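Notes from hallway chat w/ T.B., transcribed later so I don't forget. T.B. wanted the structure written out for a chain they're using in a teaching module, and asked if we could keep both sequence and structure tokens in one place. Agreed to drop them here.
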Amino acid sequence: MKGEVIFLHPDLGVGGAERLAVDAAIALKNDGYQVSFVTSYHNPNHCFQETKDGSLDVHVVGSCIPRSLFGKFFALFAYLKMIYCSFYILLYRNPDVVFCDLVSVCIPVLKLKVNNVIFYCHFPDQLLSKKGGFLKKLYRQPLDWLEEKTTGMADKIFVNSAFTRGVFKKTFTSLEIVPEILYPSINTRSFDETPAGPAKQPGEFVFLSINRYERKKHVEIAIKALKEVVKTAKEADKIKLQVVGGYDPRIEENVSYFEDLNSLAKSLNLEDKVEFFKSPSDAEKTNLLRNCDCLIYTPPNEHFGIVPLEAMYLKKPVIACNSGGPTETILNNVCGILCEFDPDDFARAMKKVLEDEQFREWLGVAGHNRFKDYFTFSSFAKKLSREVANLIGREKQD
């Protein structure tokens, strides 16, 4: 065994941050490290397969701490949960490295005993917080200060894209650290080994959207664009949009946004053309990707975006916003189409992909090749393993 690495993550659900942490754990385990997760919440019915089938050890700590107080103070309670989990690690574990993400306030606690702490910054938390009035600003001010100071205490900082690195530098102005980019990848083995599911109907053309049911993902763009596409399509009756999302009934936004999207589809008379899926299993999601003809990725200024990579690996063309992480993964009109944040622009791209089969197939093949050149799981794993080895080696030299 090369060493022990603990992954400290607040809520081990099914989002992109969770996928990154799970893939990082698999990469290090495959390289000979002993790995496990410490988290404050893990629901076997709402998680990635590797965290419930025994592939990765998961220890739930601090679940007695509530998520909020009367629907408020989510950030504060997330901080408390991670501090509680950190003390658990100090008292009962002795890892060589702790890999944490999302919440940095745990780092000074971990540093009381753990020599090597890696922090993966998906995006500064203070920029994800919804705006509010004077009291909200007063509440957030010390939390934002803590985020900046504690992030700088990590021994190694990664970010998920050049876009996020730029935001990191503009946000954490007191830090002289230049974080290193570690692009997320996907564990392609799980895609290759997933048994084929039911095929789509003959002649059917399927656009697919995969995101959590959160308003910032702007899935309504895809639904509105579909309305424009079917107006002039020759075989409109064979066109579908499948909307797939992580859905947690504990989260009010998931529930309300899901209802709003359903209402939008009905108001546009698209009930028979838009299908909604809540938190599908990994195998179900993989087969939805296999069966689709094109991925529609609507969030603007997405920090990275793992779903476009999944589609590219499976040779599916991607239509995404011309901002954020997708501008680093997708070459416009080469392996996908980058659009303005506008339903009409998305509709034009969707029509082009729909009507030109040769162009569609060319985009898919080019996307697959770009994935192999820049975003493979082996590249991700090698870089992460090298950095972990460097940290442990430095510790032994000291």
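Follow-up for T.B.: The mean pLDDT is 93. Might be a good example for the class.
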